[in-house]
Specification:
Elements: H1 2-28, H2 35-53, H3 55-106, H4 110-157, H5 159-162
Helix pairs in contact: 1-2, 1-3, 3-4
């Protein structure tokens, strides 16, 4: 996701630079006069404007993709930490269950066996609580990602993006030249 955001940002930067280059090139032909000059100037002015006008929506999309990337990274860290804690708690619960069974086999350790089994049960409850946290992380992150995706969709569907001047389909060709 981070690479996608960087790529879209690079495309926005490219459009800015390309637009500036087109406009700068127009300055080089200012001494040119006549109908062909006027038509060429109008064509390339619109072309440069069209390319440049795409940069802002592209930047907005790049920022939203970066936010999605960050949300997914934070989710992976949180889930990884939680799963590590769940694994630790499961190992402790298994040790306590094994201890409870060993104590129960001795006959005299029935009370200790009950205490060890209670501790194991507590570990299982803690595992379930931690799993609830994992699900909460997932739900929260998914909601954030959905909201950001809505923003990207809005950028793509919004009038700012759709109403961009279309780029010319052919190169400049003046019939009088």
């Amino acid at each position: 996701m981070k690479r996608a955001g960087n790529s879209v940002q690079n495309l926005a930067d490219y459009n800015d630079h390309f637009s500036a280059a087109v406009h700068e090139s127009l300055r080089g032909v200012e001494p040119w006069r006549g109908i062909a000059a006027d038509n060429a100037h109008g064509y390339f002015q619109k072309f440069g404007d069209a390319v440049g006008s795409q940069a802002s929506p592209l930047r907005s999309i790049a920022e939203q993709i970066d936010q999605i990337s960050l949300a997914m990274y934070e989710l992976s860290k949180a889930v990884g930490d939680a799963l590590s804690a769940i694994t630790d708690m499961a190992i402790i619960a298994l040790i306590e269950i094994a201890a409870a069974q060993a104590l129960a086999l001795t006959g005299v350790g029935v009370i200790g066996s009950g205490a060890a089994m209670g501790a194991a049960t507590l570990q299982v409850l803690m595992i379930l609580e931690k799993w609830g946290e994992v699900l909460q992380y997932w739900t929260t992150t998914w909601s954030v990602v959905q909201a950001l995706m809505s923003g990207i969709t809005g950028s793509l569907a919004g009038s700012e993006f759709i109403d961009l001047p279309s780029l010319p389909e052919t190169s400049y060709d003046h019939p009088g030249v």
